[in-house]
Amino acid sequence: MDLNKREYVKDVLNKKDNSKVIVAGWVEKVKLMGNLNFINLRDRTGVLQIVAKGFKELSKLTPESVISASGTIKKGQKKSGEKELILDNYEIINPAETPLPIDIFGDTTSIDKRINYRFLDARNPKINAIFKIRSNMFKSIVDFFSKEGFIKINTPKITAAGVESGSELFKIDYFNKKAYLSQSPQIYKQMMVAAGFERVYEIAPVFRAEKSHTTRHLTEFIGVDMEMGFIQDENSVMDVVENLIKYIIKDVKNNCSDELNLLKVNVEVPKSIPRLQIKEVKSMLKEKGKKLSDNDDLDSESEKIIGEIVKKKYKSDFVFVVNYPWDKRPFYHMKSDNDSKGTKSFDLIWNGVEIGTGAQREHRYKILKEQAKEKGIDLDKINGYVDIFKFGCPTHGGVGLGLDRMVQCLLILNNIREAILLPRDPERLTP
Ligand code: AMO
What are the tens digits of pLDDT across the range 19-48? Predict the structure, then answer.
């Protein structure tokens, strides 16, 4: 059968009666009724009923086999009048063995086993829909940044040192030298602002050697990082992040309504995202029985509670928490103007999960050196970083967002592993 002439199910369903077509896809179901047999054929666009008069050998056709089929389009017998294909001929491209190792269309297989067989799992239209939406989110982010004049950069993922003090590095053997997998493009995005690009972004893998067994941590995730120059303060960055979020949700709603319906997800474009001082947030938490000291960070439980409070009080799924304590922020965050214990920083929380961290950066060489010293970091060890601030660097700031967490939050998935095709965590290196 000539696969060059193959048409998609979605298009075939709109053809006039008596049109001759060739389709190809996976056998979802075979119904044997003696002389009149039926095949449900699925491709990436939908499911088509094939009516086979005769073809007794269809009893041997196993579910999930891949076939091509030719025939004539006719209005079907169903009430909906949906078109069917009256089969002339078919070819088995690849037969599927039985039994299938997972329950593709049911919910009896554990997520762990489903991921072992992701190439089967993703044949479920609901799973497929998650990744179509994820793909659209990626496109929305690229569209938004391009529209806003950001340049897309690609930075090395094999590096000599890290800058994210809190997270662990994966060591690699680099021709007998020590090297690490990149835990953030932080240095490079700041470097490219100083290089004169002013506005840069990157969407790329980020590696974290954290032994976290949670529903929101991966050891390899996709970071959406941006950095922008000549900012007034951290609010300039939050303005852009807020517009990005609105753009993504609007775009996904416009382009993925079928997938959102299939997943029964209703998302609203936020009107505006409240910006709350961390001190204020801590007193709200205290009222709910969660006590944190001035220097504490928000743990995941606090983020969950604050998500609920904000939803009730501000009718918002999102909140920016601002002015995190210097104790808990990396050395490159700028300290607050009137409070050396605070920073010009923020986290973005979506339905109780942190999806982004950002700040105005310290661009003044001397002060940056002092801040590094205060945190016990030897700046000489990250030479490339120091030089950025010696030869003309504007005020700047940026954010790092986690794409996988954003997909998880948008689709209200209970595990980040549902939001990424092939997750990596402390226990998983395959497939
Ligand atoms: P941070 O370390 O907070 O900040 O990371 C930014 C965002 O990345 C996501 N994220 C993760 N997603 C999945 N698994 C993980 N283990 C994981 N760790 C982080 C989260 C988080 O908000 N350089 C700064 C960003 C900046 O200031 O521009 C940074 O990397 O969504």
Answer: 999 999 999 999 999 899 999 999 999 999
